[in-house]
Amino acid sequence: MAEQSPEISVVVPIYNEEATIPELYRRLTAALEAFGRSYEIIAIDDGSKDRSVHLLREYHAQDPRFRVVRLMRNYGQSPALYAGFSRTRGQYVVMIDADLQNFPEDIPKLIEKLEEGYDMVSGFRKDRKDGLMRHLFSRSINYVINRITRQPLSDYGCALKAFRRELVDHLGTFTHRCRYLPVDAAWVGGAVAEVEVRHAERTQGESKYGILKLVQTAFDLLTGITVAPLQFIGLSGFGFAAIGFAMSLRVAYVRLVHGDVHQLESIIAIFFFLAGMQMVATGLMCEYIGRLYVEVQRKPYYIIRDELE
Ligand code: UDP
Ligand code: MG
Predict the structure, then answer these.
(1) Substitution candidate for ligand 1 out of 44, 97, 201, 304 with most atoms within 8 A of CB
(2) Count of CB atoms within 10 A of residue 206's CB?
(3) Which of 125, 127, 184, 289 is most buried, by CB atoms within 10 Å?
């Protein structure tokens, strides 16, 4: 029988991770056993198409503390995490990726920090083992999120984080569609700490985030948490109008003083530029309207197929 309320719940989202599951199970349980606290591990199968589910079932059969939640299809990492969090019973909840880029052995460090009185402890990868492009991309996204949430974290993208039960319960009340756990947790507020964690290259399986998906996720995140881009458009529109006004003053002056001016080319250039700006603005507004459309449907964020426990 699984214990009713373990001290620690570890949530792992799994999407086609057959290559890493055995090693993940081994290292995760070894690290938690060594820590000596009661625990449960909740693996969320996010619609894997490989042998992941088969492996998860096997480990569950051997070990009741290893719980498995299967989602109906692949909803994405964030819905998978939320599904996992909704099933946790522990006093502390830890999220970690399946690919062992984060070290399960760092979990005790996070828990001990939480116990100093924090509500959320975020790992940060000082020596990150990802490509340069990926690194720069993450850094810029991190900068923008820090500006928007006003909850500066060195590494929002770090998948190793720990939360106090109360914070997790608050997250469970959210109903909006675009949810990113660390951002939402920062929104809830509370005392936040960071601890340095180790990072490894992904040695098995492959990253689920190509450059296109990264850009898409970043855009989704940005328009999901802020209307700043719309305000920016309004502001720049104002700026353009001011420039246009100044230019017409100049045209009037040149005309009065020097006679006629032919500047068709520059006018065409300006026209294309403004038309482009307009289209970007319209597209962005459509994005927000699309979001409203999605929100009013009030569909669930994920659907659980079944649970092994
Ligand atoms: N993941 C998921 N659903 C998805 C994509 C990813 O559950 O649609 C999981 C994946 O199995 C892994 C974690 O999210 O445990 C992070 O994925 P990945 O390692 O590919 O991301 P990266 O480290 O490249 O950011
Ligand atoms: Mg990874």
Answers:
(1) 97
(2) 11
(3) 125
